[in-house]
Amino acid sequence: MTWLDRLPGRGRQGILWLLLVMVVAAATVNPEFRTLDNAVNVLNQSAALGILAVGQTVVIIAGLLDLSVGMLIGLIVVLTNDLMNGQASATLPAILLALGLGLAVGTVNGVLDKLLRIDPLILTFGMLSVLQGVIFVYTDRSVGRASDAFLWMASGTVAGVPFSAILLAAASGLVYLLLDRTRFGRHVFAVGGDETCARRDGIDTARIRLIVFMISGLSAGIAGILVAGRLGTGYPNAGAGFELDAIVAVVLGGTSLAGGRGSVLGTVAAVFVLGIASNILNLMEVSSFVQLLVKGLIVVVAIIANQPRRLMPA
Amino acid sequence: MRVAATSGFDWRSLRLDRTAIWIVLVALFAVAAMLSDSFLRPIYVFNIMRQAAPVGIAAVGVTLVMILGGVDLSVGAIISLTAVVAAVTMDGEVANIPFALAITLTVGTAIGLINGLLIAYNRVSPFILTLGTAIAVFGITQIYSGGTARGIVAPGFREFFNYRVGGWVPVLAIALWVIVLAGLWLQRATVLGRAFYLIGDNRAAARLAGLAVAPITVIAYTISGFTASLGGVALLARSGVSSTFVGRGLEFDVLAAVVLGGTTFEGGRGGIGGTIAAVFVLLIAFNLVNILGFSYQSQLIVKGGIIILASAAYGYLKGRGGYLKGRG
């Protein structure tokens, strides 16, 4: 037993070791990696995906999937930047718009899930297509400009620590407490583990699913603010692929796609594994094509290295 | 599961279970025919079948994988890679076509084999593993093609596949049906097909019954890689373009069709028949909004809405079976 094994939760030791090995290896091999600027850069680049993946962790623990979050980020990036157009006075409305829109789409997903009772993957895939259509009906080119406050949220620091990293730490801390210390959290695990059992135990499973989708939408709202500030303009394709990156991070972090098992800390570690890998390849000036290949191989190797122990039931 | 079906265990619900997607298809077709005369012209219907070929062919293999309880998200990337490989190896010469097809199908099948070996002999999530191979294969495609459209299709290649037999049926549509029928035969009439259902329904029971679960899993993913490469060839034949992005996102079209067609992520149920009906549901919906003169952008909204509503209607028609079973 190492101290890693004694941490609460299961199945994420592999990813924490991988993260440790990567940081040490990168720091040894590449002096540029050791600079403070680069560390800030990695944190800033990983924060949006991290917050999104933390939300998706809750979704996947509940045995669901939310494919709509990527396009939701795209829509938020377009609308907030268009609303702000560089004016400082529009910052607060833009933040409210981002959070409200995220929460609203999450609620729609949750309500449709309850009403229509279709596979959540199909439901949110349909929503992905709808949101993509809405974005491109609205605009097919970049619109608007982020206000200085948005730019600061994406890349500014507080006492040397990137604000986006503080946001990620707060979000993952909150969700960790929510899952590990509250009745709602226990219910999320119960619904993901065996929904029929959970319902027979008197859990309002439809309500749990609704709240889970709302959390997912809200996480996309917060991530959308960071992406909007990072890009500085309303680029319509901004969110494409985010949902898959988030799912990859969640599963690499040891959360089971079957539901009922998983951890937020594992997800955050996996986000940094992916972020550091991309950072090292960038520092080494590897072409983006080769980076794609390497990213794919990392996913394959990491998931094989991180598979559940043989002792666990099939 | 299917043994129960054939012995008349619960006739009414099981029949609806399988026919629901066809009812949705007929209803959608009726609506389409009312809104536009084109849908009543056979040539247009055959053209829809031609359009359906790449996704439909790839969906055959993915359906088999999902019956077995797996999933294959790498098919979009395999379609892209094989379309590029086929165009590059053809290099504009008719004489190169057999060699090009052999290489193309070998590449796709090999990727399927790798997927199968990694999944069958490890305890990993096939969803994420094939997502990983999809990213890697997409990277290989980009490196191979230099990031732009590359390769020249041989003269006569596209003409052959788009030639209308008897003035009506495009060869590509016939190819789709041949592969669908081959898949249906495999699914219904072979020991292998039965094994897919049993493994998907109860993996532990299948193992205890003496089935070679791991090798059969490898076969399923290999078939999926093979049909995806056929889909790549079909896409090249349909469009003639070998851009690296050509198959991007197609895995979601395939997945939507398979799930809409009644093959669930849990495995052990569904089949190729439902999948192919769902491919046509999605395609008719897409054609319909096109004919009604919506912009491409609003087509995406309608497409998403139809995916949601059609699967809701399907779920309603088949009662509370399938995925809903656990939610009563």
* Derived structural class of chain B: mainly alpha
Low-confidence stretches of chain A: 1-11, 309-314
- Shape of chain B, please? globular
What's the gyration radius of chain B in Å?
20 Å
Q: How do the strands line up in the largest sheet of chain B?
A: 1-2
Structure description:
The complex is a heterodimer of chains A (314) and B (328). With 314 residues, chain A is mostly helical. Chain A has a domain at 48-264. Chain A is 73% helix and 1% strand. Chain A contains 14 helices and two strands. Chain A has helices at 3-6, 13-29, 36-61, 69-84, 91-116, 120-138, 148-155, 163-181, 183-193, 195-200, 205-231, 242-252, 264-283, 288-305; strands at 157-158, 161-162. Chain A has a two-stranded antiparallel sheet. In chain A, helix 3 crosses helix 12 (242-252) and helix 4 packs across helix 11 (205-231). The model of chain A is unreliable at 1-11 and 309-314 (pLDDT under 50). By secondary structure, chain B is mostly helical. Chain B has a single domain (15-320), classed as Orthogonal Bundle (ABC transporter involved in vitamin B12 uptake, BtuC), CATH 1.10.3470. Chain B is built from 14 helices and two strands; from the N terminus they run αααααααββααααααα. Chain B has helices at residues 2-6, 11-35, 42-67, 75-90, 97-120, 126-145, 157-162, 171-189, 191-201, 203-208, 213-239, 250-260, 272-291, 296-317, and strands at residues 164-165, 169-170. Chain B has a two-stranded antiparallel sheet with strand order 1-2. In chain B, a hairpin with a 3-residue loop joins strand 1 and strand 2 (169-170). In chain B, helix 2 runs parallel beside helix 13, helix 3 (42-67) packs antiparallel against helix 11 and helix 4 (75-90) runs parallel beside helix 6. Chain B is globular and about 55 Å long. Chain B starts with a helix and ends in an 11-residue tail after the last helix. Chains A and B meet through helix 6, helix 10, helix 12 and helix 14 of A and helix 6, helix 12 and helix 14 of B.
